[in-house]
Backbone:
């Protein structure tokens, strides 16, 4: 590896996301050491200049910034427990998806080892990594984050949310819940119109996207209402109940299961 003046970094876990993260480090000139359980996945990165560590221990020892990006937290522990002592004095940035509680207990575990811990939530898909559109949420040790802020900025736009290590996961999962809710509604909408031979593409381009964009525009107003604690008017609740009942009836008539909308109706009824 050439001496670029950039700090050495280590990436453990070379799935689709880990590979994108390591590639972004390499493009920015960071001497990058990589390790993956299935060693062959390191090959494209080695061709770009990465060093493939033979063992996790070797990977951890190669840099003071150790990034881990694997499937889940049990995998994080499975990989790092055997080399726990080597984490002392290093910064562990864990961008594996997990719960807020998993993040907090991993922060405690790392602190017990004498390591600084930053938890991360990646709000982007691998091809977007390396561009400002890739937003990465962080929480945990501010000092450790600041120490490696430049390296982390090579992935995209960093947002540090606070010293509670669980905050990044909490916000990540909240955003994902908004996304999954939207996709479920979208799939339901498409299923309804497809019963009349309207294609998903035609519907999405001509009506769905403009409609959803106009709904996104009212979100700030909705948020203000929530924060103010204002009660939703009886009239609005009534209008929503009528619409939800009509969606469910029409979906059923068209042969679409009510699975997505029925729980929303029951939440609204309860309210
Ligand atoms: N890909 C995406 O779009 C999303 C974007 C938002 C953030 N997620 C999270 O990132 C984590 C990794 O996701 P990924 O896309 O890289 O996932 P895979 O391509 O499936 O790779 C999984 C890697 O995890 C390794 N691994 C799994 N179990 C173990 C284990 N017990 N011990 C060691 N390594 C393990 C796996 O290794 P291998 O199968 O290649 O040997 C891969 O490196 C994830 O939390 C997403 O939610 C990505």
Residues:
């Amino acid at each position: 590896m050439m001496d670029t003046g950039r700090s050495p970094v280590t990436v453990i876990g070379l799935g689709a996301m880990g590979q994108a993260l390591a590639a972004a480090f390499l493009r920015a000139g960071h001497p990058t050491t990589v390790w993956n359980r299935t060693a062959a996945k390191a090959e494209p990165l080695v061709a770009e200049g990465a060093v493939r560590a033979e063992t996790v221990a070797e990977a951890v020892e190669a840099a003071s910034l150790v990034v881990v990006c694997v499937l889940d937290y049990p995998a994080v522990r499975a990989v790092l427990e055997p080399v726990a002592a080597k984490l002392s004095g290093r910064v562990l940035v864990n961008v594996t998806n997990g719960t807020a509680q998993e993040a907090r207990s991993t922060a405690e575990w790392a602190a017990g080892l004498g390591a600084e811990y930053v938890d991360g939530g990646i709000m982007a898909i691998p091809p977007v990594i390396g561009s400002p559109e890739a937003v990465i949420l962080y929480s945990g040790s501010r000092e450790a984050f600041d120490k490696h802020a430049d390296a982390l900025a090579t992935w995209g736009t960093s947002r540090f949310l606070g010293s509670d290590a669980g905050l990044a996961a909490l916000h990540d999962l909240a955003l994902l819940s908004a996304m999954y809710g939207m996709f479920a509604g979208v799939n339901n909408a498409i299923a309804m119109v497809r019963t009349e031979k309207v294609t998903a593409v035609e519907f999405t381009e001509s009506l769905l996207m403009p409609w959803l964009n106009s709904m996104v525009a009212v979100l700030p107003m909705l948020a203000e209402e929530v924060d103010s604690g204002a009660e939703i008017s009886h009239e609005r609740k009534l209008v929503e109940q009528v619409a939800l009942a009509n969606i469910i009836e029409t979906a059923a008539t068209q042969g679409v299961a009510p699975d997505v909308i029925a729980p929303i109706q029951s939440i609204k009824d309860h309210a």
Q: What stands out?
A: The pocket of FVH is lined by residues 13-18, 36-38, 41, 69-72, 75, 78-79, 96-97, 122, 125-126 (CB under 6 Å). The chain has twelve helices and eight strands. The two ends are 61 Å apart (CA to CA). The chain has a mean pLDDT of 96.
